[in-house]
What does this fold into?
Amino acid sequence: MQKKITFILIFLISSVSFGQKIKTITEYKKENDSLINTRKTEFDKLGNLTKEVRFGSYDRISKTFRNKNRIIKYNNGKKFSEYNCEDFVAKDTCVIRSFSTYEFDPKTKIEKQTKYETDSLIRFIREVKQQKRIRISKTNSWEFIPVKEPDFEKALVLTDTSYYDKKNRLIKRVNYNSRVKEPYIEKYVYSKDKYTYQTIGTARDTILSFEYTKLQQKIDKKSIDYKLNSTDIYEYKIEYH
It folds into this structure.
């Protein structure tokens, strides 16, 4: 088993190096002497995330495995719809839990997402503008009491500004909450083999260290929307277009 795991990691790292387009990343979790399939993520040839399946446990009541799906549709490289559904595998049915529509303004370069509940009530409206190394996101949210028509005066407003370095790594995120006076700040500092994560503005500010694997470094350089979990517990397999 250890030889097989080592082969997978060597194959993944060497293959990504040659610039192939990633089609799928499958995540496995180590449990005893087995690898359990936990997540499968699919990308198109432009590197856009098109589908993610998080494999669930067995439901004794429905007598089926329940998997959570996120499916995103694109038009000319821009998002236009997204929905989240839950698989009932034995019944071959995916039950919608929420869905989103997207609009993109080519003049302002702003992407607008409107997320709905299954009954079409609005959960939140988010506007995102991506600049060279800055991503600005403004969300009007009615999370706990979704609305039929947006009432912006009663919305919780969340404004997040994310900063990236030349290697497309997130280095700082500043989060403003309209109901909180001070911002919540996250900082990332990278070295060769690890990075530190610091939070500022919480009741329990903290600094944590994480391994920054070669595979994650290569994924970040390709601007792929994917984060690896701990390689002490998880293994990964990549397929290419």
User: Anything to note?
Assistant: The first strand starts at residue 22 and ends at 31. The CA atoms of residues 138 and 237 lie 35 Å apart. Residues 2-17 form the longest helix (16 residues). The mean pLDDT is 88.
